[in-house]
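Kindly draft a polypeptide, keeping tokens residue-aligned:

***
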Amino acid sequence: MMTRSQAVAVATAVQQVRPEWDHPGILAALQAAQGHGTPAEVAAAAFRLAGDLKVRTPGMLAQPGKHWRAPAEGGPTVSVVVTRCPEHPEHPAARCPLCEARGEVDHQAGVALVKAALREAPRYVEPAVKASRAAERRGA
């Protein structure tokens, strides 16, 4: 059974993943799900549920679903997209041995492109900061 301090810690961490979920709602969902597993299993299920962006509230935690199934042993827990070499799709673009053998891989150019893309990307702003700025603009 999950202790109150464990539930608060897990709820706080889950809310960092899904800031739109309110803390009391996450705590209630953890409480309702306690009979489904150990504290570690309930916490893991809560994080898997939080990772599903189609789920709007933590209230589904106590219900059956894929969030209660652990990923296959040894398999990835997140999806990883590997960019393939456009000329040799059987190899990753960053480490294509055929392009490297011909001296066609310019890693420094790739690094420069990534840095430029990161400079142009929008910056993450905490939801609370966005709300505060919006309230200031409204004159509240």
In short: The chain is about 50% helix and 0% strand.
